[in-house]
UniProtKB/TrEMBL annotation:
UniProt cross-references to Pfam families, sorted A to Z: MaoC_dehydratas
Protein name stated in the entry: Nodulation protein N
Family matches, as PANTHER family: MAOC-LIKE DEHYDRATASE DOMAIN-CONTAINING PROTEIN
Organism field: Pseudorhizobium pelagicum
Segments forming domain MaoC-like: 19-122
Domain of life: Bacteria
Amino acid sequence: MAREISLADVPGLIGLVLGVSEWILVDQQMIDRFADATLDHQFIHVDPARAAAESPFGGTIAHGFLTLSLMSAMNFACLPTIREQTMGLNYGFDKIRFMSPVKSGRRVRGHFTLSDARFRGAGMLMTTYDVSVEIENEKKPALTASWITIVQFDPKDRPPEV
C-alpha cells in the first residue's frame, strides 16, 4: 500500500487491508503506567505474584482498554495518509470485542481493513475500519473492533465525482 493516497482513491480501497502495524511490546511497565493513568489497579494487571497464584492467566494481563488504546499508535504507524487531510478525528466504535487477554511481555499488532467510506458534508470523509489486534504466536486475537474515524479536508479538495 502506498504511504500516501488521495481522497479520490479512498472509495476504491473499500474491502482491502490498508495496513498491518509493527509489533508493540506490552510489558509490565506499560501496564502499570496505564493502571496509574486510569486508576484501575486490579491485581490481575499490577500484581504479578498474586496474578500468577490467583488468576487463570499465569501472571498479569493488560487492561482491555490498554490494548484498545494502542490502536491509535498502530493506525498512525501503518495506514496511508490522505494527501488532502487537514485533521483526523476519532468518531467511535460500532463494535468492540475483547477476545483474548494480552499477557505481560507479549507483543501485539493491528490489522486494518477499510470496510466503509462515505463523504459527509463539504469537507468530511467518514471511514470505518475492521480492526483485529493480533497477539504474537496466538491463534485468537486480543480484540476485534469496528472503528469509525473522520477525515477533515478543505471542501475545495473534495473529489468532483462524489
